[in-house]
């Protein structure tokens, strides 16, 4: 078996074992709050019909995708600008620290007043939550640029713009992608909170409505769907990361061999 296949099997081993353990342990459960996993799976198929997918899953995925893309763009561009300018970084640091420490839940009332309930407010909150991990990672990545590589590029006559594109940004990408992976969890969590508190549709709305009506199976089905969405989005980001940082992995492998 190839090394890639071995890694895939190894990454799937723990989830498979945990699900199997959950299936066995919960099979004899009589608690109304912790139903057996087979019942949850059966309820999942009944809950997520085509109409429910169109009415609740698709709007959540659209808001998540748009908000996350905005977060990546704003976080990367803002982080690069701040990383290149010590004075600007110093001047805006109090504001960025204040905004970064502000819980997204506290912004829901403000979002309702300014944007009203709906997709626009959800996108804004998701973008806000996802921006900060990426921005901080981009700042640190740019500040840690290899000075030897920059001096070499300067000696070879590369313009500042080319040094930024060909040296600084590629060198910062490993840290930026680490921030992107952190932002995935923040974005998915914000999507769910926004659905719960200020929306009439979406994954979070399904869970909170089922909980309020004491429909335990629907509650668990909604949580299961949220987990599947989170895992799928994370897997997509990891795939993109491997494509973007393929050169970095090859360079590290060569460096380890030479050592």
From TrEMBL:
Query: InterPro entries in the record, alphabetically?
Result: MetI-like (IPR000515), MetI-like_sf (IPR035906)
Q: What is its main location?
A: membrane
List UniProt keywords, sorted A-Z. Answer: Cell membrane, Membrane, Transmembrane, Transmembrane helix, Transport
Residue ranges spanning the membrane: these are 61-86, 98-117, 123-142, 182-208, 220-240
Q: ABC transmembrane type-1 domain location, by residue? A: 57-241
Topology of the protein relative to the lipid bilayer: Multi-pass membrane protein
Q: Subcellular location, in the record's words?
A: Cell membrane
Q: Name one Pfam family in it.
A: BPD_transp_1
Matching PANTHER family: ALIPHATIC SULFONATES TRANSPORT PERMEASE PROTEIN SSUC-RELATED (PTHR30151:SF38), ALKANE SULFONATE ABC TRANSPORTER-RELATED, MEMBRANE SUBUNIT (PTHR30151)
What does the similarity note say? Belongs to the binding-protein-dependent transport system permease family.
Report the protein name in the record. ABC transporter permease subunit
């Amino acid at each position: 078996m190839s090394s890639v296949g071995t890694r895939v099997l190894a990454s799937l081993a723990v989830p498979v074992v945990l699900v199997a353990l959950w299936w066995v342990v919960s099979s004899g459960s009589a608690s109304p709050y912790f139903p057996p996993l087979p019942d949850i799976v059966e309820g999942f198929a009944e809950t997520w019909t085509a109409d429910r997918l169109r009415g609740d899953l698709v709007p959540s995925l659209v808001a998540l995708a748009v908000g996350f893309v905005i977060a990546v763009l704003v976080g990367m561009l803002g982080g690069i600008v701040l990383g290149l300018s010590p004075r600007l970084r110093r001047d805006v640091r109090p504001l960025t620290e204040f905004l970064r420490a502000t819980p997204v839940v506290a912004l829901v009332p403000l979002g309702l007043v300014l944007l009203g309930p709906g997709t626009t407010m959800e996108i804004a909150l998701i973008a806000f939550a996802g921006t900060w991990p990426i921005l901080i990672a981009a700042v640190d990545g740019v500040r840690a640029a290899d000075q030897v590589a920059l001096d070499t590029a300067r000696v070879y006559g590369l313009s500042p713009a080319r040094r930024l594109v060909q040296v600084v940004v590629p060198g910062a990408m490993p840290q930026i992608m680490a921030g992107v992976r952190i932002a995935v969890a923040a974005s998915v969590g914000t999507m769910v909170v926004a659905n719960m508190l200020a929306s009439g549709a979406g994954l979070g709305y399904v869970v909170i409505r089922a909980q309020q009506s004491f429909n335990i199976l629907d509650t668990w089905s909604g949580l299961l769907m949220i987990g599947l969405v989170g895992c799928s989005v994370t897997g997509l980001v990891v795939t993109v990361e491997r494509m973007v940082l393929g050169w970095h992995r090859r360079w590290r492998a060569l460096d380890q061999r030479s050592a």
